[in-house]
Amino acid sequence: MAQSVIYADLKFAAGLPSTVPDDDDSPYENVPLGPVSAAPSPGRWTRRWRVPTALLAASLLLLLLLLVATVALGARYWQVTRSLEDTSREHTAEQGRLSQELRAREQSLEQAQLELAWARAELQQAWHEGNITQLELKIRNADLGRTQQELAVLQKEMQEMQGRLNTSESTVSSLRACVHTDCCPRGWVLYRSKCLFISVENKTWQESKQDCIRRSAQLLVQ
Question: Transmembrane region positions (predicted)?
Answer without folding.
Answer: 54-78
